[in-house]
Structures are given as C-alpha cells and as structure tokens.
Write a structure and sequence with these properties.
By secondary structure, this protein is mostly beta strands. The chain folds into 4 domains: 6-199, Sandwich (Jelly Rolls), CATH 2.60.120; 329-610, Glycosidases (TIM Barrel); 614-703, Sandwich (Immunoglobulin-like), CATH 2.60.40.10; 724-926, Beta-galactosidase, Chain A, domain 5, CATH 2.70.98. 12% of the residues lie in helices and 34% in strands. It has 12 helices and 52 strands. Strands 1-10-9-12-6-3-4 form a 7-stranded antiparallel beta sheet, with no helix packed on it. The chain has a 7-stranded parallel beta sheet with strand order 29-28-27-26-25-31-30. The radius of gyration is 31 Å and the shape is globular. The protein starts with 23 loop residues before the first strand and ends with a strand. The relative contact order is 0.08. The chain binds 1-methylethyl 1-thio-beta-D-galactopyranoside. The site of 1-methylethyl 1-thio-beta-D-galactopyranoside has 14 residues, from loops. It comes from Blastococcus aurantiacus. Belongs to the glycosyl hydrolase 2 family. Keywords: Glycosidase, Hydrolase. GO terms for molecular function: beta-galactosidase activity; carbohydrate binding.
C-alpha cells in the first residue's frame, strides 16, 4: 500500500476500488460482536468531511457530517440515486466511472488511558461501498461489502491517553457496486455506527452457541464453541454459564505444536467446545421468544479470569423435513415481509427506535417473518427479532441483477461472494431469529454459489439455505414456465422460493407438480406498489388449503420515499429522479405496505387480516367454528372471544364467550347467543367476532325482506357525469399497460360519447349505461357528482373504515364510519386513484357545524369514492404537492369498480374483479 500525506485526504492503492478481487486487505475475520459498556468507545457524532470528485481528486465540499449517516442525505452536493435492475452507472463490469464521489472522514480520537495493555480494534459498521482506513497517516487496511461491519486492529497504532487522527475514506462507486445491484436507493458513506473496542490480549475472539431443542422431549442441547484469540496461556479453561448457573467447562487448545502428527491428526483449532444437556428447556419461537443469558469466561490455570462475554440464546430447532420447513417440529406458516433498511430522512441509516418500531408494527399486524432483502440488515434489527419473536431469512449482500446470467461465472468475483456469505453467517450465527440463510437475490447461477451453500451447510447444519434464483433454473436453462420450471431447483437452495407466482400456478404446483422434499415459500409476492395488494385473501385461502404451500414474504415493508427539501424550504416525499439522479426508475421504489413514515397502508391492514392466526367459519344457526392457527399457543391464552350483532352498523347486542380453549392447530365449535332480530326495509344484520387485538371476523346474519322504505322529498338534482375511467394506479401503468389502452379507448372523455340514461322517481335517481363491445377490462362504471360547498366530513354505512376494493376488502367490515373529506383518499406518494369503499348503502355529508348537507341513500352495496381531486388531476400529478387545493369535493357512485391486483410486478386483477362490456343499471336516492 502507498499513502499520500494526510492533508491530501487519504491513502488509496490506485485503482483498487475497480478490482472485483480486491475484497479486503488487513481486515479482521468476522465474529459475533460481544463487547459492551466501558470496553466500547463510540465514535458516532460529527466528523469533519471532505468530498472529492474522485479518489485523490479535487475537493467539491468541505463540511461536517454526522456518523452514522449517508452523506447523500446530508446536503454535501452528492444526492442519492434510485435504480431497480439497471446499474446506476454505465458498464461493462468491472468498469467504474472516473467521476466517483469520495468522502474523506477525519476525527481526532483518544483511546482511554485505562485501555493501556489492551488490544484495540476499530469497527466500521457500514461503509458504502469501499472503505480505506488510516491512522496518523499510516495505512491500516481496506474492505468491501457495504452492509457488514469491518474491523481492523489498531493496537500498535494508537497510544492510550494520546490523541491520534483517524481517517476513513469511502469511495462511492466500485467494482463491488456490481454485486450490490439491488432495487433500492444508492447512497454513500458511513451509514452505520463506528466504534473502538478493547479486549484483553488473551481473549475470547468469538463465541458460537448452538442451542438445539428436541421438540418431542423438550431436551435442549447447548454447544458453545469459544475461539480464543492471540497469545498462548497453557491450561486456560473456557467456562459456560446459562442463566447464571454453570453448565460446563473445557480446556482451551492454543497453538499448533512442533509435533507434526499432533498438528495433522489431533489439533482442531484454537479454542474450546463446551456441551451440555439442558432438560426441560423452554423453546424459542416467534410466538414465545424465550431467551436465555449465556456467559462465557476464559480463566487461566489458576482460575483467574482472563476474559468474559455475554450473549443471549434461544433454544429451537429448524429443519426441512419432506416438503415442510419445521420450527420446533411444526410446519409454521411464513407470514412475512421483505425489509430494506430505510428511513425517509436517514436513507440507509435507521435508528434503533425505528427498527424496534418496525418489528412492533409487524407483530401488531400478525406478521411473523422477515426476509432481510437484499443484504444483512443493521445488526440491532436481529436483536429485536430475537427479543420480540420474528423468523428471519438472513440474506447476503449479493445481487447482480443487470448482469444476472454472466457476472458470477467469472472467477474474479468468487472471493467477494464467499466473503459476503460467510461473513454474514459468522456475524449472525447466534441469533435464534435467523431460520434460514439466503445466498442473495437475482444473481443467476454460478459454481461459486454452490460453494457458498456448501460452506453454509458445513459450518451451520442447523439452518436451511435459501436462494431466490436457485429455483429459476428450469426457466433459465430449459425454457420451462411456472410451475413446471420450479421443479428443477438447483442444489444450492433447500426451499423453492418463487417470486410473484399467480394463485393458479401455486394451486397447480400443490396439486400436481410439488417436490416431495422441498417446501415452497414465496420469497416475494403481492407487490404492494402504492394502491395495490389485490387478492391477498385468495393467496391465503390457497396456502391454507395446500400443505405444499407454506406462505411467503410480501414485497415489501416500507415505501422507499425520501424527504427532499425544495428550494423554497418546503419538504416533499421524493422518489427516483427527483434529485436529478440519472438513470433512475421513478416511483418503482414505492412498494411498501407502510408509508416511509410507517403509517400503515390499506394493504397492510388487509394483510394483517388475511394472515390472522384465528380462523372463523359459520356452521349454521348460532354455530361458529374457531380455528387456532398458532403453532405453540392455546387460544385461551390469547384473549377473550367477544361477539357483537349490528343492524346497519348500529350495535344491537354484544357479549363475550370468555376464554375459549383451542389447542395450537386445532378447531372448536362455539355457539353465539344471537338474539331474535326484527329487520325492516333494507336493513342488514351482521355478526362480528373478535379475539383481542389478534383477529376479527364479520358475517352477514340476515337481511330484511320487506318493501322499500317510503320515498322522501325530491333530491337536489346535482349535475352528474358518466365516469368510466379512473386515474391509473401503478399496477395499471407498469406491468400490464392498461393506462395506455384506456387512453386509446378514450375512456377519460367517454362521457362525451357514451350515453348515460338517467331517470328520476321522486328522490330516486336511476342510471343506465351500455359499455360498448370491445371495451374489455375498464376501471369503473359509475357517475361523478359535484358535492355542495361546505362539505367537510362524511358519515357512511358500508365497508370500512379504510380504503377497500372488491379484491382487497377482507380486512374491512360493514359498519357506520365517519371521516373528514380530506382523509377519505389515501395520500400515496405517487398520486393515483385511491379511496374506494365497497358495499356502501348510504352516505351523509356534513358541514363544519356537523349539519347534514346532503344524504345519499338506498345504494345497493355500491362502490363509492369521495375526493377533492378529479381523476384527471390525479393522473397528471407527479407528486402530492402538484395537486390543487380545492374547497369543494366530488362524489363517485359506481355500479362496478375494478380491483387493484398487483400487476406492476405480478398477477393482474383477477377475472371476477374486472369490468367488461354490457348494460349496467344502478340507483340511489338524493336528499
Ligand atoms: C424483484 C426484486 O427482487 C425486488 O428487489 C424488487 O425489485 C421487486 O422485484 C420489484 O419491486 S425483481 C422483479 C424483476 C421480479
């Protein structure tokens, strides 16, 4: 290595960032991080920062930035860039642009005086994408892989009690970027914490704890491998305590001896292994995340303590048996989401509080699994998953999407692949939450992936291996189509993890194709781009019907919108291209079931309902069958089962069945004491059941058979206009190009050509329209009315309270709801049609004094939208702030309204939720 003077900013072996095989130099082996308290010196906070236009180039900006933090989010003149499949810069690999923003971080650091005699290590939590380290102008090392910590030993470079200068240089674009071609924002900088830590010279370098538990007998088997570091200490012992009690000890082995046969045949490596049986140990699961404290000590021959570390373990067993993934012997259903580290202000820097909130929100919405798409997430996230209970598929930071079929077949990328996979496993091995290792995403197939899978299986036989592209072999090699193409998964994956399969393909797989020895778990499905998430109920009906389907991970958890400050000082939520980033992929980064600020989207509320762990079915009369889908929890331990009867949304009776014992996986029949009902006119009665916050259900009990209620006074005759179009949702713009087709059919102006026949009978308004032949699959058949001025709130009876569509309404109930007009639509970052409500029977529009301005009733379970914006305005807007502020609002009453599907990437709206040619007739009363 060469180094320039510190004043020049950094040492960088020329061109090393452009070499795929230059993975790391002088970097320490990955271990589980075990130090805390006074042994750690945080270097988080402000650092002096210089941005160069390229490594060793000219200064573009000198300032102070926060660590951890992406410099792309700190106004230094180098914004983030969003691309999906395409690389953010031109290739071919390993070409790296000459102009290559390079950040030089500097800081005075004083190692505490009482660290004298200790070993001192620098840990850089995350550097995007290549890191170079120097201390007082002396080159220390370098390394790649933006999503794992890198450690360098500084013991001989620093003097405790005396300041030194630490310089961390980060190069933004590198050969490594080709391995990090994920669909996300490209940021740059030190996005995770930086710290120094100390250990004794003779120390515990790493601990690997395997905590197995036999689900039949409840007997735990604890095996602790402690690796000892550095110098030699004859007769030293490793001692292990579980929850404070000693469970075993073993003598540590140290160095290779001079005797060859001892070395060759007996010495298995430095350290010690302690094993112990733990009878009757409580299991860890996502439902009961029971953790135990493990303390590992290194003591010398005289019993004096040399070193001591603590960690938490959970006893559980994960295995693939036949076509099932078993956790503690149960084929758990994977109710998962894909998660990127994303914060709307921090980019890849996510606070601990935000990570905890993510897991709490997931748990609160009945989810039990996360795939860390598509790289190891922040280490704290796994601590929270251990503690709160989530099954994690831990994915290595490998995606070569733009060069999927070719890149990894070149040998120069091999070392990086092995480093990324092995270092992830070495970091996360002790987390009970990690149930599978994943080799990465969309990187084709190459022998080095087989090698990586082989390494994982040898190192850690306790977890299956997952690889998304591994199931695609039949498609890539043999030209087969799903589900036949899933039949020949490569050996590197232990599960079949298809992406965005149709329900029909899943059913066919389960009934005619399925492999007897590999579970099917969808690694991505139900692409939740803005207004999306149709047919989730049908996916889950199929999953529950077929033991060959075991759930999956929705794409994805959070909208990757970023807060952008505009020149006038206001802020907006930005997507690809908004920062002048080119190339870019526009709003394709907005696929979250929660908004960037973690407000749940209606798709999450639907998901929470369809995966709820309690099933209900009407068995006739007063009978309801309860199914307990928990794997390890009796229903009686969850909450009371409460019931309520409503008539047109008003409660008429309610009660509780108290705690109902139902064993995990079992069903039981209960009787609900429904009172006799007398219904009139068009009244409808519903029965609802609820089990705490976990699950709810509603069914229609009865409908009145009487004549219509008497007609009221004549309506105000608001101007109405035919509506056959809606502002296309992203699922209609991307994927199937309905938006274009509708434009060609002239749907936005169809009211000028297609006749709407309207009759009135007293207050009743009756519409009829004939949708011409050939107008297949249009978004709606309805009318748009202008509402009187002064309307600020809506009170209605129908499905709610949140937005719902015919293919995404399982998570709603029929009831009486109220909302502000402004809150009726959903503020998707990329404006589009939103806010539909199905099954509407009446609406009342209220002014600021709560006076009823207009009543629209006698709707026959129609689809209704209320909005201050027209479809034309929504379709023309790129961002929310492009929409006009308006006093008055519009009301759409539709005979039919198209579903949402998930067609941007995945199945389009299914047949029952499409609208075609024919004559439609619908009516309502205006008062
Ligand atoms: C798939 C990717 O794995 C994911 O990262 C994301 O890009 C998602 O789809 C789309 O939003 S790739 C796609 C080609 C199926």
């Amino acid at each position: 290595m060469t180094h320039s003077s510190p004043a020049a900013g950094s040492f960088l072996p020329v061109g090393s960032w452009t070499r795929p095989e230059a993975v790391a130099l002088n970097r320490l082996p990955m271990t589980t991080f075990l130090r805390e308290g006074a042994d750690v010196l945080s270097l988080d906070g402000p650092w002096s920062f210089t941005l160069l236009d390229r490594p060793g180039g000219i200064v573009r900006c000198g300032t102070t930035v926060q660590v951890p933090g992406c410099w792309t989010m700190q106004d230094v003149g180098d914004p983030p860039q969003y691309t999906n499949i395409q690389m953010p810069f031109p290739g071919p690999p390993p070409h790296v642009p000459d102009e290559d923003p390079t950040g030089v971080y500097r800081r005075q650091v004083e190692v505490p005086a009482d660290w004298q005699g200790s070993r001192v290590v620098l840990q850089v939590g995350g550097a995007d994408s290549v890191l170079y380290v120097e201390v007082d102008g002396r080159a220390v090392g370098m390394g790649t892989d933006s999503r794992l910590a890198q450690e360098f030993e500084l013991t001989d470079l620093v003097t405790p009690g005396r300041p030194c200068e630490l310089v961390l240089t980060v190069v933004r674009w590198s050969a490594a970027s080709y391995l990090e071609d994920q669909d996300h924002w490209y940021h740059a900088g030190l996005h995770r914490s930086v710290l120094l830590y100390r250990t004794p010279r003779v120390h515990l370098a790493d601990v690997r704890a395997v905590a197995d538990r036999d689900p039949e007998t409840g007997v735990g088997q604890l095996t602790v491998h402690a690796t000892t570091g550095e110098a030699r200490s004859e007769g030293a012992q490793v001692r292990v305590h579980l929850d404070g009690a000693p469970v075993g000890r073993a003598t540590a082995r140290w160095e290779h001896r001079t005797n060859v046969s001892t070395n060759a045949y007996r010495f298995t490596g430095r350290g010690a292994t302690v094993s112990a049986e733990v009878p009757g140990v409580e299991a860890w699961s996502a439902e009961h995340p029971r953790l135990h404290d493990l303390r590992v000590e290194l003591v010398d021959a005289d019993g004096a303590r040399l070193d001591s570390v603590s960690l938490r373990v959970g006893f559980r067993r994960v295995e693939v048996r036949g076509h099932e993934l078993l956790v503690n012997g149960r084929a758990v259903l994977i109710k998962g989401v894909n998660r990127h580290d994303h914060d709307p202000r921090g980019g890849k820097t996510v606070s601990r509080a935000a990570m905890r909130r993510d897991v709490e929100l997931m748990k609160g919405h009945n989810l039990n699994a996360v795939r860390t798409s598509h790289y190891p997430n922040d280490p704290y996230f796994y601590d929270v998953c251990d503690e709160l209970g989530m099954y994690v598929v831990d994915e290595a930071n490998i995606e070569t999407h733009a060069y999927l079929r070719s890149l990894l077949t070149s040998s120069e990328w091999g070392p990086a692949v092995l480093e990324r996979v092995t270092r992830m496993a070495l970091r996360d091995k002790n987390h009970p939450c990690v149930v599978m290792w994943s080799l990465g995403n969309e990187s084709g197939w190459a022998p080095v992936l087989d090698a990586a899978a082989a390494w994982l299986r040898a190192y850690d036989p306790t977890r299956p291996v997952h690889y998304e592209n591994g199931y695609l072999d039949g498609a890539l090699a043999g030209g087969l189509t799903p589900p036949q193409s899933w039949r020949t998964p490569r050996r590197e994956t232990d599960v079949v993890p298809p992406m965005y399969p149709s329900i029909e393909d899943l059913e066919e797989w389960a009934t005619t194709v399925a492999l007897p020895e590999r579970p099917l778990i969808m690694c991505e499905y139900a692409h939740a781009m803005n207004n999306s998430g149709g047919d989730l109920d049908r996916y889950w009906a199929a999953i529950r019907r077929h033991p060959d389907l075991q759930g999956g991970f929705v794409w994805d958890w959070v909208d990757q919108a970023l807060v952008q400050r505009l020149p006038d000082g206001t802020e907006r939520l930005a997507y690809g291209g908004d920062f002048g980033d080119t190339p870019h992929d526009g709003p394709f980064c907005l696929n979250g079931v929660v908004a960037a600020d973690r407000t749940p989207h209606p798709s999450l509320l639907e998901l929470a309902h369809v995966v709820q762990p309690v099933g209900f079915a009407w068995t006739g009369g007063e009978g309801v069958r309860l199914t307990n889908e928990h794997d390890f929890t009796d229903l009686a331990d969850v909450a009371d089962v409460d019931w309520a009867v409503t008539v047109d949304g008003e409660d008429v009776a309610a009660g509780t069945l108290g705690r109902v014992p139902v064993a995990p996986g079992a069903t039981t029949d209960v009787r609900v004491p429904v009172p006799p009902l007398r219904l009139h006119g068009r009244q409808v009665a519903h029965l609802s059941l609820r089990v705490g916050a976990v699950a709810s259900w509603q069914t229609e009990l009865a409908r009145a058979q009487d004549a219509e209620p008497p007609a009221a006074a004549a309506g105000p005759g608001l101007p109405t206009r035919l509506a056959l179009w809606r502002a296309p949702i992203d699922n209609e713009t991307y994927g199937p190009r309905h938006a274009e087709r509708w434009e060609q059919l002239g749907l936005p102006t169809a009211h000028e050509r297609v006749q709407l026949r309207t009759e009135t009978e007293g207050a009743r308004v009756i519409h009829e329209v004939t949708v011409p032949d050939g107008w297949d699959d249009i978004p709606r058949v309805g009318v748009r009315l202008g509402l009187p001025p002064g309307v600020v709130a809506v009170d209605w009876l129908g499905r709610g309270p949140h937005e719902n569509y015919s293919d995404r309404r399982a998570g709603t109930t029929v009831g009486r709801w109220r909302t502000a007009v402004d809150d009726w639509p959903v503020r998707y970052v990329h404006p589009q049609a939103s806010g539909n409500r199905t099954g509407v029977r009446w609406l009342r529009f209220l002014d600021a004094d709560d006076r009823v301005v207009l009543t629209v009733d006698d709707l026959d379970d129609l689809d209704v939208t209320v909005s201050r914006w027209t479809d034309e305005e929504l379709a023309a807007a790129g961002h929310l702030e492009d929409l006009p502020a308006r006093e008055h609002a519009y009301l759409w009453i539709d005979a039919r309204h198209r579903g949402v599907g998930s067609g941007a990437v995945g199945p389009d709206v299914s047949a029952p939720h499409r609208i075609g040619p024919g004559t439609y007739r619908w009516s309502y009363r205006l008062r």
